[in-house]
Amino acid sequence: MIESKGWEWDKANHSPWLKPTDDVYYLANKWLELGYKKILDLGAGLGRHSIYFAQQGFEVSAIDISEYGVNYLKEWANNEKLDIDVRIGDMVALPYKDKSFDCIFAYHSISHADTEGIKQVISEIERVLKQGGEIYTSMCSKESWEFTKSGYPRIDENTIIKKEEGPENDVPHFYVNREDILSLYHNFAIDRIRHIDYCLLNGEKTDIKHYYINGCKK
After folding, report:
1. What is the DSSP string of the chain?
2. pLDDT tens digits, one per residue of 187-200
3. Full-model pTM
4. What is the architecture, at CATH level 2, of domain 9-217?
């Protein structure tokens, strides 16, 4: 299993990562209606989703391997007077008790692993999620240019290492197809899987594809 490596946030433009992604507004309403309260923001980054969930009244725990990201979120939460449990840690060994959370949100985070690592991450998600609790996560698609044509070095049949200037240099990226997802999440009742093609992003043509997965622990 390859060693985990976080984003180098000091090399990133922060502005795109400070506003919640669209799906969070839907999920917050859905999870409140279901009576969920305790959320883990897994791979929280700078904390945009942790802040939003806390503002909606959830009990939020946030974890990221980046010390920069953790410190940024702590300061942001303090300025907003929000009580968020923020920790630095590795997603392959989560520092939480079994069945601690009603739901786990992992946006563009758990794919930063190799094949062995992703299996360990999903095992940890299962461990800390309550029975019947929900997950929402994203994973990189094998149809993306980065996986099919970029020429980035591969460390196993599903994983590349990004080699480019910026915050993701040397960060592993694990890629899946639909069958991979169903196999990896066999202990979950999957409600929906969406496959989204970002053919234009921030005004620039791209060939980036992601899966978005929502389901509950059996």
Report:
1. -PPP----GGGS--GGGSS--THHHHHHHHHHHTT--EEEEET-TT-HHHHHHHHTT-EEEEEES-HHHHHHHHHHHHHHT---EEEE--TTS--S-TT-EEEEEESS-TTSS-HHHHHHHHHHHHHHEEEEEEEEEEEEETTSHHHHTS-PPEEETTEEE--SSSTTTT-EEEEE-HHHHHHHTTTEEEEEEEEEEEEEETTEEEEEEEEEEEEEE-
2. 999 999 999 998 87
3. 0.95
4. 3-Layer(aba) Sandwich (3.40)
